[in-house]
Amino acid sequence: MQPDEITALFDQQAEHYDAHWAKTAAIRECLYLLVDSFLVSLPIDAHILCVGVGTGDELLHLAQKNPRWCFTKAF
Length: 75
What we know:
Layout: H1 3-20, H2 25-39, E1 47-51, H3 57-65, E2 70-74
Parallel strand pairs: 1-2
């Protein structure tokens, strides 16, 4: 696949990604609990490098709980 084909495929799937995984909400909430407990010791103004975050739903969760954290998304 060419890079532009990969991008087009990703864009097509991204629109419905979160809705597709909505039925696994209970598992996602458990993962959020684990991630929150793992990251609790970070400073209030932490800088976080995020790799492979998909649509960024997890980042939204973390940003809402930690408004002073700075996130950098890497592709």
